[in-house]
Amino acid sequence: MYSAILGLALAAGLSTPTTPTTTLASVVARLAPQANREAVALAIASMRCAQRSGLGVDASRLALIDYSRPSTEPRLWVFDLESSRLLYEEVVAHGRGSGENLAKVFSNVEGSHTSSLGLFLTGETYYGRNGYSMRMEGLEPGINDAALARAIVMHGAPYVDPLAAEKQGRLGRSFGCPAVREAVARGMIDVLKDGQFVFAYYPDAEWIDRTRWKCAG
Fold this sequence. Notes:
Layout: H1 2-11, E1 15-16, E2 19-23, H2 24-31, H3 37-52, E3 61-66, E4 76-80, E5 85-90, E6 118-128, E7 131-138, E8 153-155, H4 162-168, H5 182-192, E9 197-201, H6 205-210
């Protein structure tokens, strides 16, 4: 599967100005060796396909969430693609309807309290009941396009506490939002707001097969 997806990334001509013979997927994978290679390749290919469609054309940052990893481990990476830098490697909460320590269920349905997969375009920030937050527009019909209506946003939360997770066996859970530690929330949101990309991954063969962003060449 990884080689097939990486082929899409290669076909999209993914290289950085300073590494013309290296694909962007490979650069990102080296920055975050703990990240799933399939997740990285699909995230890059999806982002480039969206940009070819006129979405997020000026984006220079990408957040990758790998929901195949347990909530007690870092599974959120934020990359600056222009400078080839890893900005954050963090734990992130999933929705309480998605599972316990491992997220296994994903939905686009209001009231499900589940996380959603796929590609998101970030929007504006605001102050809500969870403090400083960032809206996210889901770009995959039937997969995550109800994100705005469901108020699926990035925000900080006290229940995203790795020390507490060690005791209870899992991180605290959200209503579907990718909630992060309060200590990093503002900084992370500020580098991701207003037209950057967030990609949420899980090795779900049906979703991968139907994802909107499978273009090449």
